[in-house]
Amino acid sequence: KFRACQDEVDAEIVERLLQADDGGVLPSTIARDLSKYRLRRWDVKRRIQRMNKRLRKELGKPVAEKRGYRWALSSFMRNVWEGI
């Protein structure tokens, strides 16, 4: 299991980021897609920030990068996630 993701919700968020284009995706869109977890847009944002913090502590790399109001998977994470 990837250490930046603590549960299946984090993994689902990363999957949604992986499916988005380089422009990224809004947290509200991810929250709507994952409605079964009853997430709000700021819950998604905080989870992404926590994943970034955990991965930066381990490897010095972010999970996702902010692009305006949107979040996009970092190039490092895209390479790692596709290799799993």
Explained architecture:
- This protein is mainly α and 84 residues long.
- It has helices at 8-19, 27-33, 41-59, 75-83, and strands at residues 64-67, 70-73.
- It has a two-stranded antiparallel sheet with strand order 1-2.
- The mean pLDDT is 92.
What is the helical fraction, as a range of percent? 55-70%
Mean pLDDT across residues: 92
Series of H and E elements: HHHEEH
Task: Name the beta content range.
Answer: 5-15%
How much is the radius of gyration in Å? 12 Å
Number of strands: 2
Shape field? globular
The spatial strand order of the largest sheet comes to 1-2
- Oligomer type: single chain
Question: What is the count of DSSP helices, taking H or I runs of 4+ residues?
Answer: 4
Largest sheet: 2 strands, antiparallel
Structural class by helix and strand composition: mainly alpha
N- to C-terminal distance: 9 Å
